[in-house]
């Protein structure tokens, strides 16, 4: 398995579906109460991406990506148009005054409940860092892992803003295109491409 630091086409069409899925174990008791336990500590993202009215070069790009990835073997980047930005997201530790390497993350809060999502594929050139609201330049940003290295005075709240992708792989080992028509401007095709987040990345 390898990760290809390229993003699949952004030109998704109406009808594209996707988002987070959790895994919950439910046990019904005789009293009627249902006991629920989370089987994952974070969601798994799945997508069914539809590409329509592809230009010939886009058509070729999807096929090339699928074959170069050996179907579902290798993974790559995808822009989740429903959730691709972070704004003033706090990292897991205050600054210490020494060199630190921390994972970028995004927090999702509802009432008193919060879940942290590790951001492993930030978009190159978009990451902005702040300490107590004051911008600073980190020592390094690893856009392949989402880790940032910096040195800031002790006790500061470190936040980041930027865009990110999702590491995904093809869910199926078969890619089928249906050619509805062909016009002067390109191929009019409908492709339903199933993708699943690669949690190993």
Describe the structure.
The chain is mainly beta and 201 residues long. 6% of the residues lie in helices and 50% in strands. The strands form 5 sheets. Strands 1, 2, 5, 6, 16, 17 and 18 form a 7-stranded mixed beta sheet that branches. The chain has a 4-stranded antiparallel beta sheet with strand order 7-15-11-12, with no helix packed on it. Strands 8-14-13 form a 3-stranded antiparallel beta sheet, with no helix packed on it. It is globular and about 60 Å long.
Short description:
With 201 residues, this protein is mostly beta strands. The chain has one helix and 18 strands. The model has no long low-confidence stretch (mean pLDDT 89).
User: What is the makeup of the main sheet?
Assistant: 7 strands, mixed
Distance between the amino and carboxyl termini: 10 Å
Q: Which percent bin holds the helix content?
A: under 10%
Order of helices and strands: EEEEEHEEEEEEEEEEEEE
Poorly predicted tracts of residues: none
- Integer average pLDDT: 89
State the secondary-structure class.
mainly beta
Rg of Cα set: 20 Å
What is the strand tally? 18
């Amino acid at each position: 398995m390898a990760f290809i630091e390229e993003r699949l086409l952004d030109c998704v069409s109406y009808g594209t579906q996707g988002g987070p899925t959790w895994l919950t174990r439910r046990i019904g008791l005789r009293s009627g109460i249902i006991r629920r336990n989370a089987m994952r500590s974070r969601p798994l993202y799945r997508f069914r991406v539809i590409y329509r009215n592809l230009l010939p070069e886009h058509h070729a790009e999807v096929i090339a990506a699928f074959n170069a990835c050996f179907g579902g073997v290798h993974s790559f980047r995808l822009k989740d148009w429903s959730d691709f930005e972070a704004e003033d997201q706090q990292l897991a530790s205050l600054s210490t005054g020494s060199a630190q390497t921390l994972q970028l993350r995004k927090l999702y809060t509802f009432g008193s409940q919060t879940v942290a999502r590790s951001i492993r594929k930030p978009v190159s050139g978009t990451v902005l860092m702040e300490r107590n609201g004051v911008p600073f330049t980190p020592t390094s940003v690893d856009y392949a892992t989402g880790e940032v290295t910096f040195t800031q005075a002790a006790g500061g709240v470190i936040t980041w803003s930027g865009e990110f992708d999702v590491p995904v792989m093809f869910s199926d080992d078969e890619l089928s295109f249906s050619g509805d028509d062909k016009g002067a401007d390109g191929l009019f095709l409908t492709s339903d491409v199933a993708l699943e987040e690669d949690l190993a990345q």
